[in-house]
Design goal:
2 helices; 14% strand; Glycoprotein, Type 4 Pilin
Length: 148
């Protein structure tokens, strides 16, 4: 009886098929993970803007008008934090990545503002920008909230 001297192992074709399958699965996983991260950051942005909106409404309830940033431009940093932080919120939230949130008081009557617009940029889009009627809307805002 002759025994064949066949070596045990995988052929080159089998290895290529396995490597291809693994590559496809890893690629799908990376794309899904990236999408989940973007949606998570967008949810944080929406939550942050709602938190600022709530603080602005409490400020208006106490004073009868919305705070001014001093310059009338789009900013949500130092000028606004001096009037909102400590009394109405613990800190002005920052964008979870490299973007910034924007605030602009609107509807000025005398020296007081009776409206506002706050906005940010969502990575996945699909947000509703209620500030679209503001003519000086920053280009990088695709999600915005305005005073009721």
């Amino acid at each position: 009886m002759l025994q064949s001297k066949r070596k045990k192992g995988f052929t080159l074709i089998e290895l290529l098929v396995v490597v291809t399958i693994i590559t496809v699965l890893v690629t799908i996983g990376i794309v899904a993970y990236s999408s989940i991260n973007k949606r998570s950051r967008d949810a944080k942005r929406k939550s942050d803007l709602e938190q600022v909106r709530s603080a602005l409404e409490m400020f208006r309830s106490d004073f009868g008008y919305y705070p001014d940033t001093g310059l009338g431009n789009w900013t949500l940093t130092s000028d606004l934090s001096t009037v909102l932080v400590a009394t109405y919120m613990p800190a002005i939230p920052g964008d979870p990545s490299t973007g910034t949130y924007k605030y602009k008081p609107t509807a000025k009557s005398g020296t007081s503002y009776y409206g506002y617009c706050i906005c940010g940029n969502l990575e996945t889009g699909g947000g509703t920008n209620l500030c679209s009627s503001v003519t000086t809307l920053p280009i990088d805002c695709n999600y915005g909230l305005k005073s009721p």
